[in-house]
Amino acid sequence: MVTRYNLAYINHSIFNGDNGRVLGFDNAHGFHHRHYMGKIEEVDFVSYEATLERFQQEWLEFVNQTRGKKS
Fold first, then answer.
1. Which superkingdom (predicted)?
2. Contact between residue 7 and residue 28 where contact means Cβ atoms under 8 Å apart
3. Which domain holds residue 10?
4. Is residue 1 domain-resident?
């Protein structure tokens, strides 16, 4: 059973705020939430596995969009 989690993509060259956290999910401060470029929004929690899958999917989409902009 997972009681605490913190998933984060940190890249200071993309975003300097929030200690470089570009994308993240965690349950600190008593609620489940998503970080994106300094903004925080509450998210529904189904399971850690579902949250991990969402994090990986959003990270991959972000990387693909970033690569597309550089081309």
1. Bacteria
2. no
3. 6-70
4. no
